[in-house]
Structure formats: structure tokens, C-alpha cells
Amino acid sequence: MPSAWTEYDGTLTTGYSYDTPYGSAWATVTLLPFLQFTGRYVSITGISAFDTTDAEYGKGYGRYKDKVADVKLRLRDETDFFPAVSIGATDLLGTGLFKGQYVVVSKSFGQAHNLEASIGYGKNRPNGLFAGARWAPFSSPRWAVVAEYDANDYKKDFLANQTGAAQREGGPAVGIEYRWGWLGAQVARHREHFSANAYLTIPFSQREFVPKIVEPGPFQAKDAPARVSAASWQDDPRYGAALVAALVKQDFKNVRVELEGNVLKLNLTNNRISNTGRAVGRATRTALAFAPEGTRSIQVTYTRLEQPVVTYRFIDLQLLTDYLTGLANREAFLQTVSVGYSTPVDRTSNEQHGMLAALQGDGKLGLQMGEGGNLVQVSSEDREANRFKAVPKVSFFFNDPSGALRYELWTAINYDRRLAQGMYLNSDFKLDLFENVSGVTQPSNSLLPHVRTDIAEYKRGSRFKLNRLLVNKYVMLDERLYARASAGFYEEMYRGAGGQVLYLPKDSRWAADLTVDALQQRGFKGWFDKRDYSTVTALGALHYKLPYDITATARAGRFLAKDNGVRMEFKRRFASGVEIGAWYTKTSGKDITNPGSPTDPYNDKGVFLSVPLNIMLPMDSQANAGLALSPWTRDVGQMVASPGDLYDLMEQPRRDLTLYDGLGNFAERRDEQNLPAVNPPVRPLTNPWPAFRMRVEQSASTTPTLPEWAKGTILGGGAILGGALLDKPVDRFMKKHADSSAARAWDNVGKAMPVVLAGAAAGAVAFGDARAQNIGLISLESVAGAAALSVGAKHLAGRARPREERGQWGRAADRSDASFPSNHSTVAFAAVTPFAQEYDAPWLYGLAAATSLGRTAGRQHWVSDVVAGGVLGYAVGGWLWQAQRDNNRSSFAVAPGPKSVSVAWSGSY
Q: Which residues, 6+ apart, have CB-to-CB distance to 374 below 8 Å?
């Protein structure tokens, strides 16, 4: 039975439980301090997964299995006098076999809070009143006794008579629990049987789990050669080569060194050290030891694939030395440091006066254990990041009818080579060692182009195949503007050519990119064969940072199956660097393959997890382990694997740059470890309720008077009646030209424009100045309020749509799908009215009207429906604008600072 508590923010708990007839592998994550998600993979004994006349179909799948998603929202935290209150829902998506809702309150007692009690009420599962208690004795705090009243009605479970669940009874149950560190286990006794549960708890809010006991130390000044004059440095490349060699020995790559007057400039990257400030600190310490006499300043530009990202300038080398040795504090040091985005002029010369030629060869092939998060690998890598690597890997595939679990053990062979400045050859070969994926027997029956659902055919291809072979060219077009051009074999299924442009504004809250790829589907053999399918994908992406280090990404455009739509992604990053997220797509592709249907097509969705391996390794690493789970492999809303996503490439150094002073763990001093730039605190969401209440009170205080209501009603009613006179002639015209391309295009514009206008209002809130933010917020309030009134009016009016052919005033077959008024028109006018009135832009009304009338082109609405929706949206938008435009009592602001972003409500009475 549920309680009202959630685990500590950022906690992931995963385990396995058995409670006959249900076995469940599960994982729970506290995504926000008040929001907890649970995913369960439940197997049910006593019934087979597939009921079919074909004895072979589903034979290897075993017993019935179901995927379940649960959520719990804590409405109120526990205080000294009041309990915690939560609401929750089980089995939100999918089959709904375990669907239910509940509300529960919980309270702890005693000085040590070692006694906990909960009571709640559920609908469906659990069903009715339930309760629970947990007591941990002082003498044995790892142990606890648990008791609860089970309110599940097992007789209503899926096929309960066959599974044996019908014989189970609810009622009292008792159990014992043991916790040791991250591990825990429970055993319980119900009326007629035992149950068990074992789990592992991982605190993702913790910075790291394993101390860095084998981390190489920074360069020591005692190991530096004697200093020489600037003239000698310029004349003899061996001096600069010695600095480059010392940096390469510390895992720096693409090192470029240039002495320009009395300024020592470095361009470099590091593929191992995870924090940009720490990497730059080590490079600066080394440069300081090798700098020639007379050097006045040091400039370090951190690059990714030779593209400058962040530039650090140090103008007082004595204070730099004092800070590195602990003789100066951070505040004094910051006065002599400049940290900012790089510009194209920050790139140093590629030739370097023969310095690279003076270096000895490197990059020897060898067997390595535990490097980069791999148990074992054969690899080599030189100073230019040319690398060869062979690594054993394992992949798992779930839920094919021929077998619930399929696997393949294979070796990944990678070879990457620098061809020119910013140009790289990337390759990936795959050698299958052991697999049972080729036993998959279920063919795809998707009606869309098979852009992903023929995955089993690819896995059955050649044992040795070429997965990836392409050339990538990266360029920096301007400050904070990057581009990539790619050509070759992108992945196992597609080859082609394309590119990406990324823009990073100074305001670090957001970024935008555009990706276009012309693609040809590859053949099953995995070499140079091909299939007859080709397409062009084009996706624009907007990335936006929210509190709690949440990133929201919206991708819009054309996907692999030639479907057009939007993909939304949300991810939360924790202090450890672990990222947990989810995606959802909505496109024009109609995927009716089960569980999709013609009336409710399937939309691609899923969850993903990214774990930085440095939190679990005894030395720093940039390697990540990733996992993505989707309920089904489908063709709708799919994207090609990126040859090298620019946002992913720049995201971490940009995050490090904009985090407080941008220096991170620069000097690796003990007194740095509690600095916010090294260990940043979580920035919580502010409570919007007080300000929202003030806005509601302001709006209520300016409600139109009775004469104003009468005047507005007369004008609005007259406009609607005037529109009604046009209902029949316009509909006859639209019916006659229904198949024209102009009518279809107008209809599509009418469908999309309310979303575009509401999105523009949200953009004003996110990116505008104080005035635009306030009007954008009023616009969103107007959209929400007007849409709610419109939906209510539909149910009252119940007017049939023109396409139902029931006449101008016929009754709709479904009141929820009634015609009067038009929701699209309501939202469009509600969205534009505050902006039109604030900025004296009446043309916005014309835009809303012209696009809203597109709903008549598709015979979705009568003219009077559109006019009524416009009147309603205008009335609500105008009222709220009048009430809140000079908002002296309350305001909303998003204020970016040099190293921070603040979100604030302010108000007064």
C-alpha cells in the first residue's frame, strides 16, 4: 500500500518483488522532490502471453507480461503538526490492468521519527480504505516491522480465476524489513501466503560514489625545464614542443600553442577530465611552468573537435601562481580572470612553427583494463585524437512474441582519424560473437514506411558488418554559432548526407539548432547494399533550461517516415551528472499497429537514462552509459542517429562556463570543494501560488460592470448573428471546393495556428523583456480561461459540425465534439488580444481571423462558430489585459545574470 512520502530528491531505487501470482521488476525515481515515478515490468503466472490458434506463435515468450507506469505527487510536506499529503495514479499508460488512483496522508512520530503511519483511500487498485505503519527500534535501526491493511480487490484482477488471484483476500498483512547502506529486503506474511522484495537504492544527488584514488595528479612545477627567453622560444620549436608533450601526457588532445608578443595562447581539449574548469586549471598550471621569460598573460581556449568553445584569460601570472599554491583567495583571483565564449580569432595557428613535428610519436596499441568505463579494451589514441578501439559489448531486446528477452554479444571496432582541421573520419564495425536475435519470427505489419520496425532483419544480417563510416566537418561560423556537415553511413539502417547549425545565445537558458539530412535506407547485409526507401528529414530544435537543472527540448519538422510533427523531451540532471528523461512525439503519421488504432493512433514515447561513469570509477572520465526504453518499436516519430550532435557536444562546456564564476574545480584545492561553482546547489522552483492568487484577485476586481456586459453581449451577439447569415453559402462553397489544394492548405493552417500563437506567448514569457513577459503571461492565462469556457459552451450548445450533414442547427452525435464555438478560433483570439492591445497592433486580429476561418475550409466549423470563438477569446483576452497590464501589485520576471538565472514573482497589498 502506498504512503505519502517520496524518497530523497534524485534517488533511484530498483529491485524485484514477488507476490503471487505477480512477479515484478521495478524502478522508482524521485524526479523532483515532490514527484516520484515508478516503472514496473510485471509477469503473471498461470496464463500465457498470447491466446492464438497458432500453436507456434508466442511459444517462446512464456507467461503474460505487462509494462506499468505509476506516478505519485506530494501535495504537502510533513510538518510538526500536519501530515504529508500525496495523490497518486497507477498504470497510467498501456493496458491499464492495474489502473487506479489514490490519496494518502502520512505522519511520523517520536523524537527520532522511528514510527510512521499512513492512511488513505483508493479507487480501483487499491479499492477503498487502506492503512499502514512502520516501526524501527532504536536498538536495531536497520530493522523495521511493517503492518498494513491491504485494500486490493484481487477478484477483479485480470483473469483472476486463471491466475489464482481470485483466491486471494485483502486485509491485514505484516512484514519485516532490513536495510544496509544501499541494499534492502522485505519479507511479508499475508493471510494465506508469503511475499518478498529486494532492492538497491542509488542516490543520484550524491556527486560521486567512488573516491578518485588513482586519479593522476596535476603537473608539478619542479618537473618543468629552465625558462628561456621569448626569442629563444620563437626560434627553437623544441621549447613549445616540450609544453605540448607535457599537456598530451595529461590526456590533452588537439593541443596548439602560440606565443604572440608576451601572451602565451593555448588551444586544446581533454577527452577524459569531465569538468571544463578543472581541465583548464591543469592546462594553465602546466603552461605557467613552461612559459618563457617576459610572459605577461596566458590565454587558454577549450575546444571541442577543434572548435573554440570557452576562452579563459589570466592577466596576472603572479596572482595565478599564488592561487594555484593556496596563497590567494578566490575573490582576489577572480579580479584578474576573464571567462567567456570563444570567438573565431581565439583559434591559434595550425602550423605552430614546427612544434608538432618536434614531438615524438605516440598512440601505441595496448590492452587496457577499466579504461573509459570498459572492463577490457584494445585501443590506441594519439595527441590528435586519432584512435583505434575494440570493445566487447552486449545488447538486449525485449518483448518480441518469439521470446521475451533476446540478446547479442558483440565486439565494437572503432577507428577515428583527423583528416584536416575540424574534419574527421569516423567508423564503426560490428562483429557478432553470440546472439539469439536471429530467432525473432514476428514480422512488422506497420502501414507506415518501415523505418525502424524491420530491426530484426538488420540484426539477422551479416555477422561482420559496417555500422558507421562517415566524414564530419565541424566549423565555427561566428561567436556562439557552429555548423557541421556530414556524409557517409550514419548508422546501421541509414546512409546519406546532411548538416546541422547550432546557435548558443549569451543568455544560457536556451539554444537552438537546425538539422537537415538526405537519407537512403541501407540493406540488411550491413555493407553497401540498399533498400528502395529514401527521405529527407529536417528538424528544428529549441532547448530551454528550467529550474532543478531540467532541460526541455522541442523538436519540430519532418521525421524518418515522412511524418511531420513535434517531439518533446524533458530531462533532469542531478548533482552526480546522471540524467533521467522522457520523450513524447505527436506527428501526422497514423500508426494503427496495436496498441494504436484508427481512432487513436500510437505516438512514440519512452524514457531514457544517462549515467556518467566517473561517479563509479576511481579516476575521472567523460564516458557515459546510456539506456533508452520505449514501449514499442514503431515507425512514427523516428529520427536518424546523429553523426555528431552539436548541442550534445557543446552542452557540458557551456554548462561549466555559465555555472557561477565558470572556473569550477580550477586549482583542485580542498577549500574549493564547497564553492557553488564546484558543488552547485539545487535551484528549486518558486511557489507560484501567492502571485497567481494576486493576479486572480486583480482580475476579479476589474470584472466588467453590468452596462459593459450588456454592451459587449449586444455587439458580440450581433457579430455572431451576422456570421450565421454566411453559414450556408460559405459551407456550400467550401463543400464544392473541398478537394482543392488551397482549401486543404487553409484548413491545415487553421489547425496549426492556435498552437503557434500560444507558443509565441510562451516564447515571450521565456525570452522577452519585463513588458513582453507580463503580456505573454496574460496571453497564456487568456488561452487557458477562454478554452475552458469554450469547452463548456460546446457541451451546452451541442451543435453539429457541417461535415455531419445534419443541417445548420442540427444536434451533434457527440456533444464533446460539438461545433459551437470553435476552440481553435477561441484560442487564437485569446492569444493575440493582449499583444494587439498592448502594442497597438490590430493586424494581429486579422491574422487570427484569417487563420481561424481555415476551419470552415475543412468543413469543421460554420462561420458563426468561428465568429463566436473569436468573440469569446477577444472578451477574455481584453478583460485580463485590462486587469493586469499595469501590474504594480504583482509581476513575473525571468532575469538572466552573468552566471545565473533568476525566476521571480513579486507582489504587494
A: 368, 391, 623
pLDDT tens digits for 116-144?
A: 999 999 999 899 999 999 999 988 889 99
One-letter amino acid for residue 59 of the chain: K
What is the rounded distance in angstroms from the CA atom of residue 614 to the CA atom of residue 637? 33
Residues 823 and 865: beta-carbon distance below 8 Å: no
Residue type (1 letter), 47? I
In angstroms, how far is CA 619 from the centroid of its own chain? 27
Gap between the Cα atoms of 17 and 196, Å rounded: 6
CB 773 within 8 A of CB 893: yes
Structural domains of the chain sorted by starting position, each given as residue range(s) with its CATH number in brackets: 11-203 (2.40.160.40), 221-358 (no CATH), 366-644 (2.40.160), 689-895 (1.20.144)
Contact 445, 461 (CB under 8 A): no
E strand segments, 479-574: 481-489, 494-503, 510-522, 530-546, 550-558, 564-573
CA distance 317 to 314: 7
Mean pLDDT for 606-626 is: 88
Query: Given the DSSP bridges, would you call strands 297-304 and 263-270 parallel, antiparallel or unpaired?
Result: parallel
Alpha helices by DSSP H, listed for 291-360, are 317-324, 330-334
The Cβ of residue 824 has, within 10 Å, a number of other Cβ atoms equal to 27
Give dist(CA 836, CA 844) in Å, integer: 6
The whole-angstrom separation of Cα 116 and Cα 107 is 6
> Tens digits of per-residue pLDDT, 290-314?
999 999 999 999 999 999 999 999 9
Whether 581 and 571 have beta carbons less than 8 Å apart is answered as: yes
How far apart, in Å, are the Cα atoms of 465 and each of 469, 529, 682, 748? Answer: 11, 11, 45, 44
Name the nearest CA neighbour of 519 among 568, 551, 486, 474: 486
pLDDT for the residue 878: 86
Q: In whole angstroms, what is the distance from residue 727 CA to residue 138 CA? A: 78
Q: Which residues of 452-465 are buried (b: 16+ CB within 10 A; e: fewer)?
A: bbbbbbbbebbeeb
- Pair 309, 342: CB distance under 8 Å: yes
Who contacts 480 (Cβ-Cβ below 8 Å, separation ≥6)?
A: 341, 503, 504, 505, 506
- What angle is formed at CA 885 by the lines to CA 881 and CA 891, rounded to 5 degrees? 120
CA distance 469 to 722: 65
The alpha carbons of the chain give a radius of gyration, in whole angstroms, of 32
Count helices and strands in the chain by DSSP H and E runs:
16, 34
Q: Please answer whether residues 902 and 686 qualify as being in contact, where contact means their C-beta atoms are separated by less than 8 angstroms.
A: no
Query: For the whole model, what pTM was predicted?
Result: 0.79
The SS3 of residue 823 is helix
Report CA-CA distances (Å) from 286 to 223, 243, 281, 289, 836.
10, 7, 9, 5, 59
- Alpha-carbon distance 467 to 645, whole Å? 18
What's 213's DSSP letter?
Answer: T
Task: Classify residue 394 as exposed, middle or buried by CB count within 10 Å of its CB (0-12, 13-18, 19+).
Answer: exposed
- In angstroms, the CA 116 to CA 239 distance is 69
Separation CA 152–CA 146 (nearest Å) = 18
Query: What is the maximum span of the chain, computed from C-alpha positions, in angstroms?
Result: 96
